[in-house]
Amino acid sequence: MTNKVSRTHLLYREAARLLLAMLPATTFLLTTSLGAAEPAAQVAAGDTVDVIVGGKAKAAIFVPARLLDDAEKNPENASIWRTLNAEENRRRLRESVKDFAAILERITGAPLEIIAGPPGAGEQRLPILIGELAVERFGQPAEKFPYEQGFRLNVSPQAIGVGGESDLATSYGLYTLLDQLGCRWYIPSPLGEVLPQQKTVGWPAQDVSTGPYTIYRGIWYCDNDFARRNRLGGMQLSAGHALEGSVPKTLREEHPEVRAIIDGKPHPRKLKWTHPLVAAALADATLAAIEKDPDLKSRSLSPDDGIGWDESDDTTYDAGDLDESTGVVSKTDRLMVLARRVAESVGKTHPEVKFGVLAYVDYTRPPVREKVHPAVVPQIAPITFSRAHPMTDQGEPNNAALRYLVETWGKKAPAVSYYFYCFYLAEVSSPNPMIRKWSVDVPFAYEHGSCRYWQPETLANFETCMHALYLGMRLGWDPAQSPEAIFQELHQQFYGAAAEPMAGYWHHIDDVWVDTPEYAGCGYGHLRRWTPEQLKTARDWLDQAAAACRTDAEQARVQLAADSFDAFADFMQMRRDLAEGKFAGLDQKAEAYRERMNELGESHQAQYAFAKMPWTGDRTLNVRYFDGFYKATYLDAARIARDFDIVTRPPLRQWRYQADQEKQGEAAHWEQPDLDDAAWKTTDPVVDTWSSLGLHNYMGSVWYRTSTDLPQWKPGEKLHLWLSATDGRAKLFVNGKLVPYVDEKGESADSFSGYCKPASFDITDAVKQGEKNQITLLCTREFINELGVGGLLGPVVIYRETAK
């Protein structure tokens, strides 16, 4: 089934539904493609076939006996929804049937009996036929879908049939019927369930053959109930970092020529992708995996995570295409050589196997010379691109490149997988619904990017990214839907009486992200985005929502958002305290924040919220990121406030700066006090990132200069200059004199190198009393830690150490 046929089918289905609603009462049967119901099933257009009337069941569910066999000894597995395994999907359908009946009972109060086998001769109830029982009555689905995911829904006064090409497809059919009733699951757990409450339930007469638009739809963290109900699953593309691990160590030992040359030396693990022996080894590994698992459908050829590949033989296959987001030549052509060789070798006997290959870091861009083998599925993982602004935002420095790679991969590959990121960069506590970004980017991927696998990287973060997660699942099923309508329904259904203020809250949060021209990663642009005024507006919306709630469920849903926002407000208060030099107590505030985030993760595990995942242990990902990027600065700031006298109040925040793209600054002595820097621009590194200074992709050096008066100090006292955080290497000059950095071991160097770590320099011998002291920093970004950041990442202070 081609993209065009599938999309046309989905659009037809929607048009047919609307047509049915508009037609006058007459004999009409909704059908698609070649589908046809049995002649006796014709009914008046708009007529509803009821299964429960006035709280009493008029129907019963009839299933093949095999579905209920050995049910107690074969529970549903935790990852059942991610597989095409026949037995796992038998269990999935079994649980779907039970869930279908239970949901109808929760809607109406009436239980529906589930019976093994077909209806008996004297059965008076309307039969709801499942699986092969439906196929025997109504026939196969009229249209086949990849990996047997097509199903057929028949609703008539004589019988209702839900039959599919597979048990998985039949499960989709059951939840499609529930979807038609308005049943929704916005987040995991009962808190996310929204069901209509009525005593009579039925469906319009229909004969629909359909299926999902994508071959696979998935998110990383949710439970089986949530996945089944949102029709997740299919053929999951294997595209994880696996290439080097699939090549045996013996090959490297026996043929050292396959080792990648990096920094002039053979690497112990990385390989020359274009060496024929590497392709042969990967093909052999794939064939061995197929022999072990004949049902294997996909195999990954994605390299290890990170950057830095062979600098010798493989470079001859590069096309010279510059990846501006990483500042290096794209490596995609050389990787496609490897992928094509493996696919051709395995395809001789197993042409059905698909090879997932990440389009990632410096091999994100599409190939220039090499063709993409039809069995190779690129999985676009735009890790070096903005995660906050829609790809149509012309202000974002790399958006033109992002649109190019999505469109060009879509033209070069028959099917593409999308690994969009449903969270912000290295700071996931901030609420970020991605309403406008995913409303633009996800449809763009379907329209222009041959998207057939929806496999985003997600977290347990429904408290911050519910909108994007839900939109991705809905559009993965049917991209013809309107994102605006999906969000409008979400607000109305999920928040009920609080819908209007909660819509105001989420759109305000989204506006802050999108309308602020800040494109850096991590939390270093937050002070530009999240001003006290913006936070107050958000809090006002939440207060209005809390006052509007009428039910416990509405209150709990609003409170989930409020808990998330309040914790983030604490995070931002620490950022402001640091910026303003209010260092005392930052260690205590940091610990209280950590405890709160861990507690929220524990208490909301059922909602898969607050970045609590199985592998995070006793520290949620929120806390892990906080510890990695912020904690050291706060602890050290509190230490300085407790043990020393800070003599620069407020902190040093106003600097003149100049990028040194030609690397001329040191030779020209830009560190000297008498340098005329009047033409240099000014910056406050507490608020400004390199991205906001127009240096988003810049890999190089920036000079910072400022001056300050210092109070008198006593003989024997020492003065230290403290950098709260940097990205890269920092070299300090005071009054033109180089001040070495001395680490905790007492070892001296001419500069400090670190990321998100504080550093103190003893400047006693360089400063002067009673005079203006000139301070110069030479900051060099050595590699990409996060997007658009470099140099100073916070305030600078000078503190006095009293002689003992």
TrEMBL record:
Assigned keywords, A-Z: Hydrolase, Signal
Coiled-coil intervals, chain numbering: none
SUPFAM superfamilies: beta-N-acetylhexosaminidase-like domain (SSF55545), Galactose-binding domain-like (SSF49785)
GO biological process: carbohydrate metabolic process
Region (Disordered), start-end ranges: 296-324
Gene3D superfamilies: Galactose-binding domain-like
PANTHER family in the cross-refs: ALPHA GLUCURONIDASE N-TERMINAL DOMAIN-CONTAINING PROTEIN, COAGULATION FACTOR 5/8 TYPE, C-TERMINAL
Protein name: Beta-D-glucuronidase
Organism this protein belongs to: Lignipirellula cremea
